[in-house]
Structures are given as structure tokens and as C-alpha cells.
Amino acid sequence: MSQHIEHPDYHHKQLTIGLFGFGVVGEGLYQVLKQTPSLKASIKRVCIKNPEKKRNAPAELFTTDRDELLNDEAINVIVEVIDDADAAFYIVKTALLGGKHVVSASKKMIAEHLTELLQLQQQTGQSFLYEASACASIPVIRNLEEYYDNDLLHSIQAIVNGSTNYILTKMFEEKLSYRDALLQAQQLGFAESNPKLDVEGYDAVNKWNNLLAHAYGIVTSPEKILFTGIQSVQAFDAQVAEERHYVIRLVAQAKKLESGKVAAFVLPQFVQASDHLSFVRNEYNGVVIESGFADKQFFYGKGAGSFPTASAVLSDISALRYDYRYEYKKLYHHTPGELTNDYYLKVYLSFENVEEVPKDKFEWIEEWHAREDRKYLVGVLHVQHLIDSDWWKTNGTSLVLLPNAIIESLDLQKLKKKSLELAGLQLHHGFKQW
Amino acid sequence: MSQHIEHPDYHHKQLTIGLFGFGVVGEGLYQVLKQTPSLKASIKRVCIKNPEKKRNAPAELFTTDRDELLNDEAINVIVEVIDDADAAFYIVKTALLGGKHVVSASKKMIAEHLTELLQLQQQTGQSFLYEASACASIPVIRNLEEYYDNDLLHSIQAIVNGSTNYILTKMFEEKLSYRDALLQAQQLGFAESNPKLDVEGYDAVNKWNNLLAHAYGIVTSPEKILFTGIQSVQAFDAQVAEERHYVIRLVAQAKKLESGKVAAFVLPQFVQASDHLSFVRNEYNGVVIESGFADKQFFYGKGAGSFPTASAVLSDISALRYDYRYEYKKLYHHTPGELTNDYYLKVYLSFENVEEVPKDKFEWIEEWHAREDRKYLVGVLHVQHLIDSDWWKTNGTSLVLLPNAIIESLDLQKLKKKSLELAGLQLHHGFKQW
Ligand SMILES: NC(=O)c1ccc[n+]([C@@H]2O[C@H](COP(=O)([O-])OP(=O)(O)OC[C@H]3O[C@@H](n4cnc5c(N)ncnc54)[C@H](OP(=O)(O)O)[C@@H]3O)[C@@H](O)[C@H]2O)c1
Ligand SMILES: NC(=O)c1ccc[n+]([C@@H]2O[C@H](COP(=O)([O-])OP(=O)(O)OC[C@H]3O[C@@H](n4cnc5c(N)ncnc54)[C@H](OP(=O)(O)O)[C@@H]3O)[C@@H](O)[C@H]2O)c1
């Protein structure tokens, strides 16, 4: 009986796609589209860089001339999944100005051009969708856009980089070496072409930059966000984590402080076993959203890989049939949020050489441990200091946040006293040289 | 700088709400709205049943005359959160026909009138939103509508009833008695006014009925879906679960079979520790969506309670500012799915009295256990038999599905042989009387 119901505004827009890129994501999309005929979307032409490469698709699909796609009137959707951010921006801009909708997965390009891309969307009225660029298969942008569109978003904590999470899992659970773990991630298609982007946190901070616009209406740039990757994390740190029943994850977070301003950063963190993020292993991503009244919500799914990423691109393509656009409600319809660096973080810091650690920069040091192989401390630093310096991520120094690391304000008198007591204690723990 | 961007189609529709019900959810919404002034939504009038009850809100807000809300031209949104399904349907129908948008949390009313409600939406063009009626704070309807709108949805498994999950958690983790656990759930505001609705699975199957429309475009009715609750689950079953490293959950599921048709039911199930649903404790709900290419996705959040439910109502209200409607894409824009009962389930069955168990109805019995206090078996039953009979949930018999319980087709020759071998074995295991 249900078959006979006709919807009043039934329409199936025919989508004709010009695809840029035929790598991990591009070829994945090609395969996925072949298996979803009901979508009525077809790839008319594919632009790639290297005409010599062998492709698993008919040769006549391919070109190296981008104008053959951008100037083709019959193509109404450009899907951009290349690994060159500058070329990607040119393609996206030209396509939007040419009256085409665009779907993209390039978080780097979006992060570098967010303001212009917002203006282009307003100017042209075209849709620019990029769900795959955030947590691949998890519809996090869509949910932030559509669901948390009031002023009750307390915080978001997320694992947004599948490669580093894969590497951390393999290193700590299977005791793989860092190199072997990275190699596996690359072979499985999770890693960016340039592994530095993943490992040093650039990919995560780019994604975080873009998500801040949808979460809080904050339009900023990655250089303004405190971040690092997992390049300094040591086997020693994993051992300490284990002793304390923690796991280490690279966590992107944003939190509305009591001042109303937003703290946002991407740093390695000790995660408690009871924390939803400890559930997130291998190349999976996870997002914990804490909102007024609704308590914690947790979204989990594959954060990288050919098909999971392609399936997010597919969902964006599918949404274009109904002329879906991001509304950036928190930016345009509310008072946009504002970033702040005026707060403190409680950190674990491991190091070889105590001279490298500027102890006077700590507001408070509450633990000292000197082991034979390595030393560590637990203390509190002002965020501005972390932004202004890099000693904490160089020279073999490794910083990992404690759980609930954000401290909005300090009772300094109390802490100074505590610190002094600890300064006495340290002598008994192998810090005689300090 | 972002503050200066003006969105081209900026609009803030003023919402004037007529609220029906001021119980757990209604009063929650009243509180939540007071704390979200940016929404520009205000409650003009509240209709309740009992004029004598003390209310935490100005007396002049309240009335017992529904027409004062339904006939008020200034009210453009009706929020219906009462616990009387018949009255609720009248209210929703009258409001839609009267040109008002409606937000509701009444899964029972929606399940009972789904076809009419679909027709009313088409006829009137008004929005009818009911996210809170599914998994309270988890935006599952919205995600099924917006994100999985292609034909790649393999399966959904979900914990959709917060009360039963709370009771199961308290009984099995804290060894509370069933009565005490239920009492706690009621005091905390999770339980339906009539506990039978929760405990016997009616609430879960109502929700499942409604979600099937958004997931697969299936419009059916709860009587056609195989279901039970947790009323028969025994401490003994929990003990067996523990021995096998399982937990017991009331799981609602739907799966596309190889035939293309959909199996759907709500039954208690043994859940493995590695399963996402084992993560879901207390009054939380969880949804695992398995789709082609994207692998498994997991959504988790509070599934009941005053504020979590009110916050889902709030999100629906907020969506009305942008004239959001469900499109029921899988029903109207695709070939809708079709339910089937032609498959088998692998079940655990515990019982006191072996005579109550019609062993000839089993396709296959693979384990027998007779303990001093109680007996159990593991075997395979055809679903149609479970639908047509009720011995498996009466007379102290308790049925719990095994993990991956669905069996699409059986190699009967092989199984018969196995069954006969087991029939021999059973004599050694205390089933001499059979
Ligand atoms: N892999 C993932 O799991 C994943 C997940 C989320 C997002 N992403 C994003 O998706 C994008 C693509 O990633 P990928 O992993 O698919 O990269 P990839 O495997 O390295 O493929 C890159 C593709 O881009 C093409 N290309 C590069 N420059 C071009 C240009 N100027 N014009 C036309 N084609 C050009 C390459 O052409 P040739 O084939 O001729 O070399 C290749 O086909 C990136 O932005 C990445 O950040 C990837
Ligand atoms: N509680 C939850 O966690 C939860 C979660 C999801 C969905 N829901 C759904 O939300 C709805 C409300 O649940 P609840 O827990 O808030 O129930 P509740 O606490 O029992 O409150 C019911 C309210 O409805 C009013 N009412 C009953 N019949 C009425 C009528 N004919 N006209 C006007 N008002 C009437 C009652 O009035 P009086 O105050 O005068 O008695 C009372 O205020 C139900 O459909 C339920 O299934 C509840």
C-alpha cells in the first residue's frame, strides 16, 4: 500500500559529475557509484595529473585538462578529491563561479581558504559540501549544522585523524614500531600522501579549523589553533599511560568556557578507560558532543579509507539532489563564537634532559618522577606559553594532556604553596640536578 | 571579522508555541526554553488534564481546554507531549489541519496512526517532527532521513528503550531486584506512566515501527513486528550470559536479507563485549548502523529523561525556523522496503518445565543444559513460528537471541543429522524425561 503514495514535491535531479582525482578516494567513489544506480548520478569525465598511470576504468573517461570538466555545461557537479590544495582551490572556485555545485574532501584547502569559500558560497548561491573532509564516514558536519543549532553546545572532543589513531593503536596494543605502524597505515590507504600532515597534527588541526565554523560559528585559521601531532610520543609515555589505566589518543577539542569564549586545540591526551574516546581504535574516528540538557552524545565510525570516505562523498552528492546547502547557522544567525587562549592546561611532560624544561614557566608542578631511562612531571601551563614556544615538542620532550586538562582559572596563592612543597620533595626523587 | 558577514537568506521565524502536557517532558521543555532565548520561541499556552495539580510555572499559562490552543491563530507550533495516545492523535490531526506545525514525542500515537499521519503531512504541507519519540537525545531520525538516503543501509541494531536498559543494567551490574530497578527508573523519570509499555517491549516496538519508515521506507504496524520485552528475563539467564562473556540487552534490529526484503524485530539478546551495544548502559540508547562502504557507525546518547528528551523536542522546534520537514525519501523517492518473516533465529531458551517446550518446532537444537535450578537449550526456530505462538514468553520460559541470530536459510539435511546426534547426547545431560 505504501507503494502507492506519491510525494507532492517528488523530484530526482539528474546529477552529472566531473571528478577531479582518481586516487584512494576518487577511485573509491567511482566503484561506489557503480553500485548505487538509484542515485541517478554519473561520472562524465575524470581529471587526473599523470596521463601515463594505469586506471581501473575506461581510458576515454580521463583527461589532464581541467577545463574539459570546468567548461562543460552538461556537468552540474564537480567532485574534487585531489591531494594538491592549491590546484584544489582553483578548481573549487572556478566551479562555484561557473554555476556548479561542488563536493570536496580537501580539509587542507578548506582550512586555508575558509573565508573565501564562505564568500564564494554566498556570492554564487551554489552548494559546497565537504562532509568527507571531517571525519570521513561520520556525519559530523551535518549534525552540527542541523542538530546542535542552538547555543547549548558545551564542548566537542574528537578523534579526527584515522592514521595517527591507527598508529597509536598498533604501537600500544601490538607493540609495533612507529615506522611499521605508519607503513601499514599507508598501505591501507588511510595516510595522507605526505605523512607529515597526519603525524604532526596538520590534518587534524585543518579539520578542527573547519569544524569550528559549524560548531561555534568561529572562522579562524590553523595557525591560530594550538596543536601538535604524535611525533614526540614515546614508548615510555605509553608505559606511564598503562600504569595509570589510560590510553593515549590525539584529541581535538573545543569547549565553551565560563567567559563564553571558546578554547580549542589538538593535542595528545591521556584518555580514561571509561571515556568514549578510548573506545575509538585503529582508523576509526569518534566525536563526543556535550550539550546543555542532552548530556553526552557519541558518534563513531570509520575516519579514513577508500570506501568510508567515498561513502561520505556519496552522501553529499545525494544531498545535492535536494539542493542541500550548509547554512552556517551559528555564524550567520547567531552571535558567532570567539576563540580565547586565556586558560591553563594540565599536562604530563616526559623528557631526557631536565635543562630543556623551563620550570619557571609552570604555574604549578604537582608530580616529579625520575626513572632510569627517562623523567617526567605533571604540571600546569598557560596556553599562551604553549603557543609562543616549542620546547615542549622538540629535543625529545613529549607533552600529553591529562584527562579534563582545561583549567579556567587558578588560585595562585594555594598553588605556589603546593609547588614549594613539591620543590622540597623533588630532591628525594632524583631531581637533585635541578 | 566574521561578525560582519550577512547571510543572504537570513530569517528568524518567530515561533509561538502551544504546549500540550506538562509532565516529565513538558516541564523539561519549559525549563529548557527559558534557557535558550536565542531560539526566539515562546510558549503562549499550556494545556494539561488536571487543573488542580501544582505547577512550577505561572497559573495563567495553563488551561484544560484544548481549543484555546488549537483555535489560537497566533500559535503557529503545537508541541504535543502528553501520555494519552488517542487524545494526542486528535490534537496532532487538528493542529496539522489547522495549518500549524507539530512537534511530538508520542511514539505510541505515531505507531498507531503512521499511515494517516503521512497522509496528513502530504495533504497539509505542514511539518510534523518527532525526533524525541525515537531515541530521545540521539538524532537518529534526522540521520536516517538526511544521511543514509541511498540503498546501502544493510542493517540497524539499536537499544531504543531507556527504562528497560536501565533495569537490565541495575539488575545485572548491581544485582538490584527487578522491582527496585523499575522503581528507580520511575523515580528518575525514564519510565512510561504505564510500566508495561516499557517492560513488555511495546514502547520499543512502537519506536521501531516508526524508525522503519525512515530507515527503509517500510510503513507497517507494531502487531506485524515480532517483539517482546524483558519481562521474562531471569537472574539465571544473566548468569549464563556472564559465563559466556555476554551482557543481555533488549535489541531492536532490522536487516536487509539476501532476498532484498527486511527482517525486523525487538527481542532480548546476548551481546558480546566487543559489540558497540554492550557499551550502552543505564538509560542510554545506542544505534549501530551498518551501511555499504561506510562500515559500522555508532550513535550514542541519553534515551530518556526530562532534559534529554526536551532537548530533542527543542531541536525539532529549532528546525521549524527553517521550515524543515521529513522527506521520507526511502518511501517516496525509492522503491520502499518490504518486511519478511521468512528467516530463522538462533535462540537461547531457559525454562523450568521441559514439557512446555515444543521441541518439534525447532529446526535444530545444538546445546542442552540441565542445571539444578533451571534448564536451557540453544537452538534454531523459524520466525513465523515465534510470531504465531507465545509459549516462548509465557510459563516462566525465557528467550534470548544469540549474537548474529539471523539465519537466512538452513541446510536441513545437515541439521537434522546434527539434531539426532544431539538427541542422543541429551540423555547424558539430565533430559531423560524428554
Ligand atoms: N585517503 C583517505 O582516507 C582520505 C580521507 C578523507 C579525506 N581525504 C582527502 O581526499 C583527497 C584525496 O585523497 P586521496 O587519499 O584519494 O589521495 P591520492 O590517493 O594521493 O590521490 C590523489 C589524486 O589526485 C590527483 N591529482 C593531484 N593533483 C592533481 C591536479 N592538479 N589535477 C588533477 N588531478 C590531480 C592524482 O592524480 P594521479 O592519479 O594522476 O596521480 C590522484 O589521482 C585529499 O584532499 C585528502 O586529504 C582522504
Ligand atoms: N519521559 C521520557 O523520558 C520520555 C522520553 C521520550 C518520549 N516520551 C513521551 O513523551 C510523552 C510525555 O511523556 P511524559 O513522561 O512527560 O509523561 P507524564 O510525565 O506522565 O506527563 C503527561 C502529561 O500529559 C498531560 N495530559 C495527559 N492527557 C492529557 C490530555 N488529554 N490533554 C492535555 N494534557 C494531558 C498530563 O496532564 P496532568 O499534568 O494534568 O496530569 C501531564 O502533564 C509520552 O508520549 C511519552 O511516551 C517520554
From TrEMBL, chains A, B:
Keywords: Amino-acid biosynthesis, Methionine biosynthesis, NADP, Oxidoreductase, Threonine biosynthesis. The keyword Cytoplasm does not apply. GO terms for biological process: methionine biosynthetic process; threonine biosynthetic process. It is an enzyme of class 1 (oxidoreductase). Residues 139-317 form the Homoserine dehydrogenase catalytic domain. It catalyses: L-homoserine + NADP(+) = L-aspartate 4-semialdehyde + NADPH + H(+). GO terms for molecular function: homoserine dehydrogenase activity; NADP binding. The keyword Oxidoreductase applies. It holds the Pfam family NAD_binding_3. Residues 21-131 form the Aspartate/homoserine dehydrogenase NAD-binding domain. Pathway: Amino-acid biosynthesis; L-threonine biosynthesis; L-threonine from L-aspartate: step 3/5; Amino-acid biosynthesis; L-methionine biosynthesis via de novo pathway; L-homoserine from L-aspartate: step 3/3. Its EC number is 1.1.1.3. Belongs to the homoserine dehydrogenase family. PANTHER family: HOMOSERINE DEHYDROGENASE. This is Homoserine dehydrogenase. It comes from Phnomibacter ginsenosidimutans.
